[in-house]
Amino acid sequence: MNKSYQSLLEFSRDLYALRSAVGVLSWDQETMMPAKGGEGRARSMASLSRVMHQRFSEPRLLEALEACASGEGLSEEERVVVREMRRDRDKAVKVPEALAAEIAETVSLSQRVWAEARPKNDTAAFNPWLAKVVSLRRREAECLGYAETPYDALLDNYEPGARTSYLRKLLNDLKAELVPLLGKLMDAQGKAASPLDGKSFPVADQRLFNMKILKAMGFDLEAGRLDESAHPFTEGLHPEDVRLTTRYSETDLMSALFSTLHEGGHGIYEQGFQPRWFGTPMAEAVSLGVHESQSRLWENQVGRSRDFWSCYYPSLQGMFPKQLGEVDLGAFLKAINRVQPSLIRVEADEVTYNLHIVLRFELETALFGGELEPAGLEAAWNEGMRRNLGVAPEKPSMGYMQDVHWSCGLLGYFPTYTLGNLRAAQLFDAAQRAMPSLKSDIRSGSFGALKAWLNAEVHQSGRCYDGDTLMEKVTGSKTSAAPFLGYLKEKYGALYGIGL
Ligand code: MG
Hints:
The protein has 500 residues and is mainly alpha-helical. It has helices spanning 3-31, 38-56, 59-68, 76-94, 97-120, 123-144, 150-158, 164-189, 203-217, 253-271, 288-302, 306-319, 321-324, 329-336, 350-369, 377-389, 415-434, 438-443, 448-459, 467-475, 482-496; strands at 224-228, 234-238, 241-246. The site of magnesium ion has 4 residues, from helix 10 and helix 11.
C-alpha cells in the first residue's frame, strides 16, 4: 500500500482513538460522574481536545495529504478518506488557535451564565453573552470561508455542503403547508383528554419493555449499552461500543419509549459502519441531518405507527393491565400522535416540531446577520410563536432561553433537526418501494430487513456523499418536504377519518 496513505490511516486511527477517549469522559459525565467531578473532568476533556487540535497542525499530516492528493493508486473509498481528512484538517487549521481558545472559553462561561439566568428569566445577564458568542462565531465564519453567506460556514459544521438559501426555501415551503394543516388537525381532534394522562407506570416495568424494543430493532447489546441520563443522547465511542441513554418518568410512559426508539436509531447508525473502515471517515456519519433521519425514522415512521403497535400494544397492555386494559389500540394511537401547539420544542409532536425549528432558524440567521439584536429577541420570539403556533410564552425561560444551543454557540445546528425529520419520511418511502413487505414485517415485529436496508443504503457509505447527494442516490431526489407532508396527511387522515 502507498506509504503516504498508510501514514494517513495511522493518523486517522490515532485521532479516532483520542476522540473515543473524550467520548468516554463525556458519557461518564452525563451518566455516572459524582456531582463534584465536574471541574476535574472539564480539565481532562480540554487537555485531550487540545491534543487533538494540535495533531491537525502537524506538518506530517499535510505532507501525507499532499502526497495522496492526486488519488493515484487509491480506491474510490480510499480517496474519500483522503478528501474527508483534508476537509477536517483544513477546518481545524483555518481557525487560529487564539480564536479557537477564545470561543471555547466564552461558550463555556456563556453556558454557565445561561444555566443560572434561565430559571430567573434574567435576560439582562444572558443577552450580553449571547451577543459575544454571536460575534465570535462571525469571526470564525470569516476564517472558515463560505460559499454565499457567512451563515453557510456555520451550517457546514453540522451539515456539510448545505446553503442558507436552500434551507430558507425548504423551511418556508414547509411552514406554508404546516400552519394550515395544524389548524385542520386541531379542529378534527377536538379537546378530549388523553387516556394515558394521570396514570402511573412503574419504572422497573418500563425498563424491561424498553430493552425488549431495543433488542427487537436490532441494536446489538454486545456492542452497546442503554443507560439513563437527564437528557437522552447517543455516544458512539466505536462501532462496537455505542452508548445510548434514555430517561424514565413514572407518569409519562411514552417519554422513555420514544427516547429509546430515537436513540436506538442513532445507535444502529453508529453500529452500522463497515469494520474494515473503522477509525476512518468511511466509518463516520455524513452529518447531523442524516444522523437525525435515522433516529426519527425509528421513533416516528416506525414507532408512532399503527403497524408497530398492532404488534406491540398487546404486550404493553399485558405489562400495564390496570392502566391500559380499558384503552383500545385506536385510542392509544390517537393519544401518542396527539397534536398540540406548545411552548417547548423538545415536547413537540410531529406536526408542530418543525415550526419550532423554522422560528429558531429565522431568528438565528437574523441575529447572525445583525438585523436583530439579543435585546429584541424576546419580542421577535413571541410574535413568531403566535404567528406559527398560536401560542406565546409569558417568560423567556419558556421562550428564547429554553434551549442550551445558543448559549454554547451552536448556531447553524437547529436546521439539522428538520432535515432529519424530512429525510426520515423520504427514506421510509424509499424503503417501502424497495421492500413491499415492509409494513407487514413491522406488523409482525420483524425489523431485520429494514435495518439491513438502512445499513446498506445509508450507513455503510460512511462520509462518501454529502447529505443531499446521499438522498438523491437512495431516494431519487434531494431532501424534500413532500414525502414528510404526505406522510403526515396519510397518517392523520387515517387516524381521524378525514381527507387532508
Ligand atoms: Mg437526535
